[in-house]
Design goal:
- The chain has 2 domains: 2-121 and 268-325, Medium-chain alcohol dehydrogenases, catalytic domain (Quinone Oxidoreductase, Chain A, domain 1, Alpha-Beta Complex), CATH 3.90.180; 135-262, Rossmann fold (3-Layer(aba) Sandwich).
- It has helices at 41-47, 114-117, 121-133, 151-163, 178-184, 197-204, 219-228, 250-255, 270-283, 285-289, 306-315; strands at 2-6, 15-19, 29-39, 64-72, 84-88, 97-101, 106-107, 142-145, 168-173, 188-191, 210-215, 229-237, 259-262, 297-302, 321-325.
- Strands 3, 4, 5, 6, 7, 14 and 15 form a 7-stranded mixed beta sheet that branches. Strands 10-9-8-11-12-13 form a 6-stranded parallel beta sheet, with helices on both faces.
- The mean pLDDT is 97.
- Helices cover 30% and strands 26% of the residues.
- It starts with a strand and ends with a strand.
- It is α/β, with parallel strands linked by helices.
- Residues 40-42, 122-123, 126, 146-147, 149-153, 172-174, 177, 192, 216-217, 238-239, 241-242, 263-265, 313, 316 line the site of NADP nicotinamide-adenine-dinucleotide phosphate.
- Keywords: NADP, Oxidoreductase.
- It holds the Pfam family ADH_zinc_N_2.
Length: 326
């Protein structure tokens, strides 16, 4: 089968299309003919050699796929060859065929195209897991989402507006994306390059701070995030684009009864991911079915344009997801 291969870790130019053996599904797994996938920021980090796949997962890049079930592994029931499915994969998405666990499959709603479905799992499940299952965002609370123009964060804004319409959503964005984030429904957008989000949060919340922060900047934002968090607030850290080490004032954290939660989706066990997927399928997939939300696709590339697709993500000019068509 055709797949995107890496000669050596490095910039986008290390990516090339090559031929590899088609994988076979093991017990509890299915083989999927991949019709669409998408670029996630983690793919860039893996390509650079800093995010190896969990043991047992494919070395090929790509964390999610949409396509048709092509073969069932031993012990799989409830799925048939030809079913339209979307799913998380630990790796292997940038290829004509990928192996996934049957317990992680989500039927693609009739109203959804493969291209959209290939942009659902990594971004929306990450947003759902961390904002709702771990972050426990409720109506009446205020949430701060960083980088509202990215894949995960456009998904997070969609989910907040759809699932907790009475929550207030504050989003940080670079100047060129502020208007589009506001159009997504954010209640306040802070241009993080020219404004101090701590001050803006303070004014907006009448000095109370926000109940939840979804953060992928890490060290560079830790102090400011803690200042922006309300008493009893939760800070969920899902990325480290701004560094991995920072100081935390534990006394202030204790006195304000705040929680700092670290979370990664990819390295979770098969059964943990199955439980998350099951909750997501029940709560979020009907929103896609009814077209109340749909993935925001910045641009779709063919697989043989993978270098351009990675360069586009690294330029940071995208708004929403970068889709890949097989
Ligand atoms: N832990 C997990 O399980 C998990 C799963 C999926 C993704 N992630 C992480 O989530 C992050 C986003 O992934 P993605 O695929 O959605 O990437 P993406 O589409 O490239 O989005 C990244 C966003 O970060 C924003 N950003 C960069 N610097 C910023 C800053 N200083 N302040 C605020 N925003 C800033 C960018 O906004 P501007 O363009 O406006 O600057 C961009 O919208 C990555 O760090 C990724 O590793 C974690």
């Amino acid at each position: 089968m055709k797949a995107v291969l890496i000669n050596a870790f490095g910039g986008a130019d290390v990516l090339r299309i090559g031929e590899v053996e088609t994988p076979s599904p093991g017990p509890g797994q299915v083989l999927i003919e991949v019709i669409a996938t998408s670029v996630n920021y983690a793919d860039i980090v893996q390509r650079e050699g800093n995010y190896p796949p969990p043991k047992g997962d494919s070395e090929i890049l790509g964390l999610e796929v949409a396509g048709r079930v092509s073969a069932l592994g031993p012990g799989v029931s409830g799925w048939s060859v030809g079913d339209r499915v979307m799913t998380l994969v630990g790796g292997g998405g940038y290829a004509e065929y990928a192996v996934a666990y049957a317990d992680h499959l989500i039927p693609i709603p009739q109203s959804m195209k493969f291209e959209e479905a290939g942009c659902v799992c990594e971004a929306y499940i990450t947003a759902y897991l961390n904002t709702f299952m771990l972050g426990a965002l409720k109506d009446g609370e205020t949430v701060l989402l960083h980088g509202g123009g990215g894949g995960v964060n456009t998904a997070a804004v969609h989910l907040c507006k759809a699932l907790v319409p009475d929550a207030k959503v504050i989003v940080t964005a670079s100047p060129g994306k502020v208007e589009r984030v506001a159009e997504l429904g954010a209640d306040l957008v802070v241009d993080y390059k020219n404004r101090d989000f701590v001050e803006e949060v303070k004014v907006y919340t009448d000095n109370k701070g926000v109940a939840l922060i979804l953060d992928h900047i890490g060290a560079a934002y830790l102090a400011s995030n803690m200042k922006s968090l309300a008493i009893g607030g939760r800070l969920v850290i899902i990325g480290v684009m701004g560094g991995i080490k920072a100081e935390l004032n534990l006394v202030q954290m204790m006195v304000k009864r705040q929680q700092v939660i670290g979370s990664v989706l990819r390295s979770r066990s098969v059964s943990e991911k199955a439980a998350i997927v099951s909750s997501f399928t029940e709560v979020v997939v009907p929103l896609f079915e009814r077209r109340e939300i749909r993935p925001l696709i910045h641009k779709t590339y063919n697989l043989n344009e993978i270098v351009n697709a990675h360069e586009a993500m690294e330029s940071g000019t995208h708004f929403g997801k970068i889709a890949l068509r097989l």
